[in-house]
Amino acid sequence: MTATEWKAAPRNWTTTLMFALTFLAALVLVPWYGFGHGYSGAAWMWFALVLCANELAITCGYHRLFAHGTYEAHPALRLVYLLFGGMALQNSALIWSAGHRIHHRYIDDPQRDPYCARRGFWFSHIGWMLRNYPSGEPDLGTVRDLQQDPLVMWQHRHYLAVALGMNFGLPLLLGWASGDVLGTLLLAGLLRLVVSHHLTFCINSLAHIIGTQPYTDENTARDNAAVALLTFGEGYHNFHHMFAHDYRNGVRWWQWDPSKWFIGAMHGLGLASNLKSVPWFRIQRAILETQFKRAERELEHQPDRPKIARLRQRVAEEYAAFQAAITAWTQAREQWLDTTRRAMADRWERSILQSRLKELERGLRLQNRRMRVLRAQLG
Question: What is the pTM of this model?
Answer without folding.
Answer: 0.84
